[in-house]
Specification:
3 domains, 14 strands, about 45% helix, single chain, alpha+beta
């Protein structure tokens, strides 16, 4: 269950991102996951079901569904005959031998993109592993090994240009190789810089001066390589670096496209909703007719009574219809979702579906275990109890066909599906007060002023799992009208 929620991060000043990973269960035909989010908002922000409805929430949310990148460590990318580099080499040689074959073209495209995606994921995991090493000498040794391995990977990949017949390929396939090479260089440089930044902030940073020199040397080699190859993705001082950012973003999209899945959205429970609305109208009309018939039997065909009973019958019909609609709508919202998303592979084969909905909850409708987590300490309880908060409730149900998912890739194992949710808080932050405040303090015997920053705390509780297994996490978003300052996870 620990694999379901992989991370929650600040994406930019206005957005945070939640990345769920749903592992496949090969021993089962299907697997069902659920995800719930409770977001507690201060009532003073005036964000409620009247000012911020479903359409606005879906407008401010972006959802991507893709396969989890196959897991390889950096050494495993070039170790053994089943490694990604070997498979890419075979795909290249097959294309050279029969460039007109559609299968070979698709296989070459697929393996180049998969190689770059695996390298990106392996670098991210290696960076996390290194940052968890505490002992300085052990860290130095691990970084030296990482730099040597990464250099070998990049060199061996570039040597594929020396495969006999490479330069006889169509321009399209040589260009795709160059784009993959450029992207590999960019992501290598990015993670090397992050490693340098990390080493500069650890205790006794001077003990890592030698490995920092190794990291800088590899960065310089990558910059020189991109420059000599004619790649325009070079970061320059006193420049807006527009070209670099555009190419990095575009190449990430191109290389990652091999992992993304197709989706089609439908309204969930359409037939049930139409049936319930028709039932409400029928019930209202039936009550009105019963009233008219009873009145006619009691008073006969008296003209005045006919007029009065017709008016009263219309009122009964109208109010009954509206009340029934509200009642049935609440029932539908409880048992059905807003949308059903069909998840398909590149050949439009259905591999699963996702149902999702969003609503505002009354405080009395929040489960008691969620309330206890929200009010874990006395300050939180006093600040967020009663009517002082609006509660946005989001839920998902994900059904995966394990057998169909396992058929997607023939030479890499599908380990799971990533569900990436990005939430934009512009609308919420626009309701916040100005963050700048002046505070007073004593400077000796004088009264002095100093600047301060005012923030809001938005509490978010996530509950997710499968079957009867579940995990719960409490996240605090600390932000103001200038943007998200940080995300803090609270121990529960």
């Amino acid at each position: 269950m620990k694999n379901v929620l992989e991370r929650i991060i600040v994406r930019d000043d206005n957005q945070f991102e939640i990345k769920y990973t749903y592992p496949l269960q090969p021993e089962k035909e299907t697997t069902k996951y659920f995800v719930e989010m409770f977001l507690f908002l201060p009532q003073g922000l005036n964000i409620n079901n009247k000012t911020y409805g479903k359409k606005k929430f879906y407008r401010d949310s972006t959802n991507y569904i893709r396969f989890k990148t196959p897991a390889f460590s950096l050494p495993e990318i070039i170790a053994g005959k089943a490694n990604p580099l070997y498979k890419t080499t075979i795909a290249l040689k097959e294309l050279i031998e029969a460039p007109e074959t559609k299968e070979h073209r698709e296989n070459y495209d697929y393996h180049l993109k998969m190689f770059s995606s695996i390298l990106k994921s392996a670098l991210r995991d290696e960076e996390k592993r290194l940052e968890n090493i505490i002992e300085p000498e052990e860290l130095n040794t691990a970084i030296k090994r990482m730099v040597v391995t990464l250099s070998q990977i990049l060199t061996l990949f570039r040597e594929l240009r020396n495969v006999n017949g490479f330069f006889t390929l169509e321009s399209r396939w040589k260009t795709l190789f160059a784009l993959s090479d450029e992207y590999n260089s960019i992501i290598a440089e990015f993670h090397l810089f992050k490693l340098l930044d990390f080493l500069g902030n650890v205790p006794e940073a001077e003990r890592h001066s030698d490995v920092c020199a190794d990291v800088r040397e590899l960065i310089n080699l990558e910059v020189s390589h991109r420059s000599s190859a004619g790649y325009p993705s070079i970061v320059r001082d006193r420049s807006d670096n527009e070209t670099f950012l555009y190419r990095a973003r575009t190449l990430k999209k191109i290389m990652g496209s091999i992992l993304f899945l197709h989706t089609q959205n439908y309204s969930d429970g359409r037939i049930a909703k139409q049936f319930m609305l028709s039932l409400a109208a029928g019930l209202a009309m039936s009550l009105a007719m019963i009233f008219l018939l009873v009145g006619q039997k009691v008073f006969g065909n008296i003209a005045l009574w006919l007029v009065i009973s017709t008016v009263i019958g219309y009122i009964i019909r109208d109010r009954t219809k509206e009340s029934s609609r509200a009642l049935f709508s609440n029932w539908i919202e409880k048992y059905f979702f807003d949308y059903k998303t069909i998840i398909m592979d590149n050949l439009n084969r259905k591999i699963g579906e996702c149902r999702s909905s969003i609503s505002f909850l009354e405080p009395s409708a929040v489960p008691q275990d969620i309330v206890k987590i929200r009010n874990r300490d006395i300050l939180a309880e006093l600040a967020g109890s009663g009517l002082d908060e609006e509660i946005i409730y989001s839920r998902k149900q994900i059904n995966l066909n394990n057998a169909e998912c396992s058929k997607i890739w023939t030479d890499f194992r599908v380990e799971g599906i990533n569900d990436i949710v990005r939430v934009n808080l512009d609308e919420i932050m626009s309701k916040m007060d100005k963050p700048e405040r002046e505070l007073y303090f004593l400077d000796g015997e004088k009264c002095a002023k100093t600047d301060s920053i005012s923030v809001y705390h938005l509490n978010m509780i996530l509950r997710y799992g499968m079957d009867k297994e579940s995990e719960t996490r409490k996240i605090r978003l600390i932000l103001n009208s200038n943007g998200i300052r940080r995300i803090v996870e609270t121990i529960i």
